[in-house]
């Protein structure tokens, strides 16, 4: 007891806080092992209980999504339905025209969906349905890196399946954000495993599906500056994009069109914010006045964040990787103009992982997901508003500050300790 008291007396308040943050009884960090290991003395019972839990989770998640499938949205009537019809009528030759403002990889899945024996609406939504389960599995893998308790892994799996903003996005809305986000999380998993080539490969695939994958670019740039990623691997980004566009190119689509799809998307929506709960909710909707300054402001903040990470002498590890991943996923769409409400989807998913890595911050994923969900309502349900968007933006700003403060405490622990002792 005397030894324990001596240790506690020598530790600063910041050190104690940081220790408590990760010391909840969720299981120790595992050594490399397979999925076949069951903690405890009754592996047979554990297997039965875990299998039952997974079966119930999957069944309920599937039933929940199927119950939402009949809902038809504006995006379905004006975009997805027409793209589906075009591919069904023209087959793969339909890719030679610019019938959609999406990149080809998602449209390949949509072409495959035209061959399913399902009604059109169900066929379209089934793409994201599969993605939801893939996403939940990757979340499980990420949490498995930190904990040696299968119950915690399965809790993370269930959290991803039943997060409202996730199943609203896929099953109700019919959007495909789950696809690129699954690859983003796979890239994060590879970073945590020190697999740089695979990390950039998955990040490149995510970018080929959605431009919003670049919200996590600060994480990869910082990883490069810390020696975790060789610069040559960044060549995978254009290489993978061109490779995935190759089938559309061979069908007759001009290369110039394929290379400028994202530029076209950037010019499609002129509003400073399209229901996104970001700082532009507090400004007049005048893109000609605030658009360009907003881009410069966002670039400045992101650059400052990267520089702060670069100057830190703290060894780069999983804590900083997960913290920076969420900080980037929130900061970039929060400060960029022309954002949509769905652009915080990646932050929703990373926040779930964050909550398990830092259980004392369990309220972070709850807050981020709730804010995203409420921001969906005005578009999905005819201007229905639970909480006004400027207030949602304020709530998200508070979350962002908390995440950034925690990140900077880990980046500069000696400074944080000095400040607490001085107080």
Q: What is the typical, i.e. mean, pLDDT?
A: 89
Unreliable spans are 1-21, 30-41
- Helix fraction, binned, reads 55-70%
Structural category: mainly alpha
Q: What is the distance, rounded to the nearest whole angstrom, between the alpha carbons of the first and last residues?
A: 28 Å
Query: How many separate helices?
Result: 20
**Which geometry do the CA atoms define?**
globular
Give the percentage of residues in beta strands.
Answer: under 5%
Counted up, domains total 1
Largest sheet: 2 strands, parallel
Number of DSSP strands? 2
Question: If strands are numbered along the chain, what order do they take across the biggest sheet?
Answer: 1-2
Order of helices and strands: HHHHHHHHHHHHHHEHHEHHHH
* Rg calculated over all Cα atoms: 22 Å
Oligomeric organization of the protein chains: single chain
Task: Kindly describe this structure.
With 423 residues, the protein is an all-alpha fold. It has one domain. It has helices at 2-10, 13-21, 43-68, 74-90, 104-113, 120-144, 150-162, 164-172, 177-192, 196-209, 217-225, 236-250, 255-259, 261-266, 287-311, 318-335, 345-357, 363-380, 389-411, 413-422; strands at residues 273-274, 339-340. It is globular, with a radius of gyration of 22 Å. The protein starts with a helix and ends with a helix. Mean pLDDT is 89; it is low at 1-21 and 30-41.
